[in-house]
């Protein structure tokens, strides 16, 4: 199944950040900044913060058989829209398919109305179009394509791009909250502009209250990929394991576990390519999951809605990271917003209460736009979904360089 979300023109009252120039941290060192005015308003204590429920964030109510309404929207700090739109729209479309592209910023003070149109009801494929409107104005459209599982009597060939090897497990990576709390205690943080420090403190609070856990893989991690010319013995073993698969997670080939097993003997095992490298500037890897373990009991369709929700966190920001645009660069990062967002699902057997690795790359940025691509893997190395997003990545006008010779002459 796949979903595609398409952006529409921005609402006139979409909030913007007019004080971003006062922030002095580097690009995407933390992706969501508050619209800090430079004043130090009192931050709430951790005990005063209530963690958002991902189920509440994605909940919709049925108004009529093809019309739904959001009941709650959670908007990250300094973001002009809600990440819940993707998951809520997918949930609405799935609700209509069981019986037979990205967007304008969503404002937190108005509910979103989702209207579903049945485009196709085939024997194997079903297509739905969802139009979301808020405060009387369309804000985005979604096209969803669903397919029935392949019958066991008609097995189809399969291929997956392998998960990178050498990636530290989730709990070996720092959470965003831990990473930036630790940063605030450094001498470098002590030199921050008060507005920037306030923004960072607010971001830490946001991460505490967010329904999504994020642990970024350190950028100096050395990783590699399994050689395409794997030994015939290993290929035969994999084929036999997949042939015997009974449909359970436990019966799948555990690519990551197998990779760890051969890593110790890599010098004598020629099936693993020992060409290690670190992440380039246009790459990012994030371990992600829903913080609420109770979502494990939700059905497969809801797991996909949650994954669509996860896929919007720190995604298009990788395109800005690729160019070096930031609040400190010259020119500065002026605007970053989603234009469209596509998710392709290739598994009905994953849980968003378990850690998923989003491997992101930005192959092209230019003309004020950028594209990012992603792959979601389970800890076992199973590729369950692919993601693509295009967004606005726009720089402000470059500031004129100061003439040092004139300054010296004045002295």
From TrEMBL:
Q: Which domain of life is it from?
A: Eukaryota
Q: What is the recorded name of this protein?
A: Uncharacterized protein
Taxonomic source organism: Naganishia friedmannii
């Amino acid at each position: 199944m796949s979903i595609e979300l398409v952006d529409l023109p921005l609402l006139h009252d979409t909030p913007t950040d007019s004080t971003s120039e006062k922030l002095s941290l580097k690009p995407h060192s933390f992706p969501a900044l508050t619209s800090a005015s430079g004043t130090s308003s009192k931050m709430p204590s951790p005990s005063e913060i209530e963690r958002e429920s991902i189920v509440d964030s994605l909940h919709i109510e049925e108004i009529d058989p093809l019309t739904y309404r959001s009941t709650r929207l959670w908007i990250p700090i300094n973001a002009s829209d809600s990440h819940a739109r993707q998951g809520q729209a997918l949930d609405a479309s799935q609700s209509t398919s069981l019986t037979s592209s990205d967007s304008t910023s969503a404002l937190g003070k108005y509910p979103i109305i989702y209207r579903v149109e049945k485009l196709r009801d085939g024997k194997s494929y079903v297509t739905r179009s969802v139009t979301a409107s808020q405060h009387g104005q369309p804000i985005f459209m979604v096209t969803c394509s669903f397919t029935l599982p392949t019958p066991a009597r008609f097995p189809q060939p399969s291929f997956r791009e392998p998960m990178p090897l050498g990636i530290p497990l989730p709990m070996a990576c720092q959470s965003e909250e831990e990473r930036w709390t630790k940063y605030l205690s450094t001498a470098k943080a002590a030199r921050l502009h008060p507005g920037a420090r306030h923004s960072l403190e607010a971001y830490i609070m946001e991460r505490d209250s967010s329904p999504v856990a994020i642990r970024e893989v350190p950028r100096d991690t050395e990783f590699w990929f399994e050689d395409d010319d794997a030994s015939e013995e290993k290929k035969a073993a994999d084929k036999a394991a997949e042939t015997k698969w009974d449909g359970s997670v436990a019966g799948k080939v555990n690519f990551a576990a197998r990779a760890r097993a051969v890593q110790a003997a890599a010098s004598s095992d020629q099936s693993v390519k020992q060409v290690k490298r670190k992440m380039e500037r246009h790459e990012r890897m994030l371990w992600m999951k829903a913080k609420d373990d109770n979502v494990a009991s939700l059905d497969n369709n809801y797991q996909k809605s949650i994954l669509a929700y996860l896929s919007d966190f720190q995604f298009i920001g990788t395109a800005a990271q690729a160019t070096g645009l930031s609040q400190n660069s010259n020119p500065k990062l002026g605007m970053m917003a989603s234009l469209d967002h596509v998710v392709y699902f290739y598994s009905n057997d994953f849980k968003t209460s378990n850690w998923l690795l989003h491997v992101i790359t930005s192959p092209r940025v230019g003309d004020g736009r950028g594209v990012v691509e992603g792959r979601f893997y389970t800890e076992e190395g199973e590729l369950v979904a692919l993601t693509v997003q295009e967004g606005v990545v726009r720089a402000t006008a470059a500031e004129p360089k100061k003439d040092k010779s004139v300054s010296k002459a004045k002295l």
